Amino acid sequence: MRRVVAIAIAAATLCVCAGPSRGASSQDFAAVERGRYLTTAADCGSCHTTPGSAHPFAGGRPIETPFGVLAAPNITPDRETGIGAWTDDEFDAAVRRGRSRDGARLYPAMPFPYYTRMSRQDVADIRAYLDTVEPVHNAVTVNRLPFPFDLRSSMIAWDAMYFTPGEFRPDASKSKEWNRGAYLVQGPGHCGACHTPKTLLGSDESSKALHGSVLQGWTAPEITGKQGSLRDWSVEDIAAYLKTGHNKNAAAAGLMGEVVGRSTSHLTDGDVEDIAIYLKDLSGSAPGKTASPDKDVMNAGGAIYQDLCSACHRGDGKGVPQMFPNLTEVATVSAAKPDTVLRVIIQGAASVSTEKEPTGPAMPAFGWQLDDAQIAAVATYVRSHFGKQDSAVSAADVGRARSALAARVN
Ligand code: HEC
Ligand code: HEC
Ligand code: HEC
Question: 266: Cβ below 6 Å to ligand 2?
Fold first, then answer.
């Protein structure tokens, strides 16, 4: 996620203040441990911590939204600038209903439309855990949206149209494992925040849950088990990807690398397996039809591929298990939009390292070496020869991808 933009922490306002936290007594211990696990599953720290900061949950990280950039607030137990003085009801209303302490609407950049699937007890446990972290005095100015979205009241209409509050209800016709996976995906894991296509106003297109979406220049691929690459992945393949960041087909990079590193790699083996069981059972989108690319472009792309790419991904695109992704299997290559393929070729990519697999292999950048037409040719070749996409990528697509990437200082 975006890390540019002036950050709202003025050095002088940042202090770790010793103060009365509502520290845990021994009978709270189990609640705190459940809360810690859920806080990780929900990845609250990813937005509410400034990257590189030594103060988890102290806020300040800029979050991109369809309306503009917001900074996530301080949710440490500091009484003045954090949530230390909030009641449990106020905290629950923020996390599950998107209401701030003063009753104002929160923007859905805070994933409350997903967290509403958690129970009141779940959120009370998260609170119990957050009460044990270091209180940090850090006043964050949250609201930096352009008119009319700077008016929180514009969210009243949004909530009315798009927000369906309510706890997860298990489906009695499905297994216990399926239901646990569904709860984790739809609730704390908020996987749809990235993997579900959005309307112009940033709400989920709910009929297309987990059918894939593009955000910040990354394609979050379709992750239903009936289309896209998960169709060919086993439950074990999906679980390994979520647990370690790698499997024999793919490696998690970018935003998903962060999700794996901070969240899913810390879940129990049972939970990642339940997520996989649920995803495998979801039906997907209908495949689209497109025109075939030009033969000369395919020949040029094939030559560049042999030259620059086949050393790692092999001539047949199948790569090397656990090292170089199998381009015939990964979703990014078959995705309808070429965004991630272009980004990876232009900028390169380093896969996440997790405790189980400490060194992730890297993909070099080719943006400096190849011009737009050459990148378009090799991207077209890879997508249509190894993937399921028959549409050509144009030099203009590459030009647009380059400027979009240059505009983003990571
Ligand atoms: C994807 C980013 C993201 C994640 C993940 C996230 N938040 Fe937030 N959160 C935000 C943003 C942005 C706001 C501010 C929204 C606004 O002001 O309209 C916010 C607001 C809040 C608030 C209201 C604070 C205030 O001062 O009004 C609370 C409480 C909160 N989040 C708790 C949590 C908890 C607990 C979790 C994990 C269960 C979590 N958040 C996960 C981005 C996130
Ligand atoms: C912050 C955005 C974000 C969130 C939240 C997120 N993902 Fe992803 N996910 C991505 C992106 C981007 C990719 C593509 C990664 C790449 O290109 O290496 C991806 C890739 C994946 C893949 C690999 C698909 C393939 O075919 O290569 C799986 C499986 C997956 N995500 C599952 C999940 C699950 C399950 C959750 C919720 C627990 C989740 N993701 C939450 C952004 C996200
Ligand atoms: C030095 C080895 C190496 C070379 C050369 C190389 N790659 Fe890669 N490639 C990798 C690695 C490693 C990854 C996984 C990176 C990650 O997970 O972040 C990767 C990832 C990718 C992906 C994304 C796969 C996914 O999981 O979504 C694509 C597409 C890709 N490479 C295409 C190419 C193309 C096209 C070329 C030639 C222009 C090329 N690669 C050259 C090592 C290489």
Answer: no
Q: Is 102 helix (H, G, I), strand (E, B) or coil?
A: coil
| Distance between Cα 17 and ligand 2 center (Å) | 37
Name the residue ranges covered by the structural domains of the chain. 11-19+26-162, 176-280, 295-353+361-407
Q: Which ligand is nearest to the CA of 155?
A: 1
Task: Give the closest ligand to the alpha carbon of residue 186.
Answer: 2
- The identity of residue 161, as a single letter, is M
Q: What is the pLDDT of residue 394?
A: 85
pLDDT at 389: 73
> Which of 375, 348, 342 has the alpha carbon at shortest distance from 360?
348
Residue-wise pLDDT tens digits, 206-260: 667 888 777 666 788 889 887 778 888 999 999 999 999 999 888 898 889 999 9
- The fold for domain 176-280 equals Cytochrome Bc1 Complex; Chain D, domain 2 (1.10.760)
Q: Classify burial at 32, counting beta carbons within 10 Å of its beta carbon; exposed 0-12, middle 13-18, buried 19 or more.
A: buried
What would the mean pLDDT of 92-112 be, rounded to a whole number?
89
From the list 181, 156, 151, 177, the residue with the least C-alpha distance to 168 is 181
Q: From ligand 3's centre to the CA of 326, what distance in Å?
A: 9
For 171-217, how does the pLDDT look when each residue is reduced to its tens digit (9 = 90+)? 999 999 999 999 999 999 999 988 987 665 566 766 678 887 776 66
- Beta-carbon contacts of 381 under 8 Å, excluding residues fewer than 6 positions away, are 297, 298, 300, 301, 302, 304, 305
**Ligand 3 pocket: which residues have CB below 6 Å?**
250-251, 253, 308-309, 311-313, 324-325, 327, 330, 332-333, 341, 344-345, 349-351, 361-364, 366, 378, 382
The answer regarding whether domain 295-353+361-407 maps to CATH 3.40.50.1360 reads: no
Which ligand number lies closest to the CA of residue 382? Answer: 3
Torsion of CA 168, 184, 258, 47, to 10 degrees: 30
Q: How far apart are CA 255 and CA 213, in angstroms?
A: 13
Q: Read out DSSP for 43-73? A: THHHHHB-TT-SSTT-B--EEEETTEEEEPP
pTM of the model: 0.70
Widest CA span in the chain? 71
